[in-house]
Design a protein that fits this description.
The complex is a heterodimer of chains A (219) and B (166).
Chain A lengths: L4 E5 L4 H12 L5 E4 L7 H6 L8 E4 L2 E4 L1 H11 L10 H18 L1 H7 L2 H22 L13 H20 L10 H12 L1 H4 L5 H14 L3
Chain B lengths: L6 E4 L2 E4 L1 H11 L11 H27 L2 H22 L12 H6 L6 H8 L3 H4 L1 H11 L2 H6 L3 H13 L1
Helix pairs in contact in B: 2-3, 2-5, 5-9
């Protein structure tokens, strides 16, 4: 596939990272275009008129939107280093957990935006989400996808990495080893995987960035 | 996990979440009437639009039939915009899947069973606002498999009336 691959994204976005990880895991060369989310470019608005959001993958001039839909596209277009199992039933299970990450993952961001009772509720729901993954999602293998990182690992990897940033910015602790031992073991493996390790946005920089974002937010 | 229907049980193994089940069915019985295109780009577009339907349709629709006053008016406007966006995506095609019914058609057509309810509660005509959309829905209902498996809109209206009374 010799056609040009472009990723419109943002360094601090978990959704953007998911796509970058998928591309890097498969060794696909691409151009990264950093979008200023406070001043969205004409190109972004042209390529994602419905949601006007990053990430957008542009392959041979054609745009694909929504992070996990992009990851599935990458998986189908460049089938080497598979991110999904081959068996249809196992694929359905993987898709189920990706969907779960999509539906429930955003609750972690409510921690970031809330105070008081809303914050307590968001923390409770986030813990429930993590507990469900701990009890039902993890299998007795290194990653959700077996011996190699797959789509579900990518989906939850972004949630957990950014959750650690939120923990630091807000001063709460959710990812505790005694509460979520298997999840944290999986997460350590994920962070140490060669491709992932080299493509993690700097955590300290993100803490500064998100703290500043909170301070400048209108009340 | 979710304690919800639908659940498909195939050879004793359960699969949950409607569109995930549809993809599973498409993969296992791939020789008959494929619902997703074979080209990866077109598949990504089908998934995008089905995802958009899932995110937008039912939550907006609910506000139309259960809302009041300003919120209901806002919901009606959003619903109309949503249907117009879908009309734009349909373009001149017979179905979202092209000449045959596809993934997006399957995702969207059950929503049309609720239109009678929206129109009654919202006091407006969807056909007047979005004729192309209604024309598409009618084409889908010409397919016996679709027509037979969808609930009667009158039953849905009765159901909604019951819910509103609680």
């Amino acid at each position: 596939m010799g056609e040009e691959v472009k990723l419109l994204g943002a360094w601090s976005s978990p959704f953007s990272s998911r796509v970058a990880w998928a591309l890097k895991l498969k060794g696909i060369a691409y151009e990264f275009v950093e979008e200023d989310l406070s001043n969205k470019s004409a190109m972004l608005l042209k390529y994602n008129p419905v949601h006007k959001k990053i990430p957008v993958l542009v392959h041979a001039g054609k745009p694909i939107c929504e992070s996990m839909i992009i990851v599935e596209y990458i998986e189908e277009t460049w089938p080497h280093t598979p991110l999904l199992p081959t068996d249809p039933y196992e694929r359905a299970i993987a898709r189920f957990w990706v969907q779960f990450a999509e539906d429930k993952g955003s609750v972690a961001w409510r921690i970031f935006h809330s105070t008081g009772q809303e914050l307590e509720k968001a923390i409770k729901e986030s813990l429930e989400m993590l507990q469900t993954v701990e009890e039902h999602g993890l299998v007795d293998k290194k990653y959700f996808n077996g011996e190699n990182i797959g789509m579900v690992d990518i989906a939850f990897g972004s949630i957990c990495y950014w959750l650690q940033v939120i923990e630091e910015v807000i001063g709460v602790k959710l990812l505790e080893p005694h509460k979520l031992p298997r999840l944290l073991k999986w997460f350590q493996s994920f962070l140490q995987a060669p491709v992932i390790k080299e493509n993690l946005p700097d955590r300290d920089q993100m803490v500064v960035f998100f703290k500043r974002f909170l301070e400048t937010k209108p009340a | 996990i979710h304690k919800k229907i639908p659940v498909l049980i195939h050879n004793g193994k359960p699969i949950c979440e409607s569109l995930i089940i549809v993809e599973y069915i498409d993969e296992v019985w791939h020789n008959k009437s494929p619902l997703l295109p074979s080209d990866p780009y077109q598949r990504s577009q089908a998934r995008f639009w089905a995802d958009y339907v899932d995110k937008k349709a039912y939550s907006t629709g609910k506000r139309v039939w259960s809302g009041k006053g300003e919120d209901q008016e806002a919901a009606k406007k959003e619903l109309t915009e949503f249907l117009k966006t879908m009309e734009g995506e349909l373009g001149e095609k017979r179905f979202f899947g092209g000449d045959t019914i596809g993934f997006v058609d399957v995702a969207l057509v059950p929503f049309t069973s609720w239109f009678h309810t929206f129109e009654n509660f919202g006091q407006f005509s969807i056909e007047a606002e979005c004729p192309k959309f209604i024309a598409w829905a009618k084409r889908c209902l010409e397919k016996e498999s679709m027509a037979k498996s969808l609930p009667d809109p009158e039953n849905i209206y009765g159901y909604a009336l019951g819910l509103k009374k609680k």
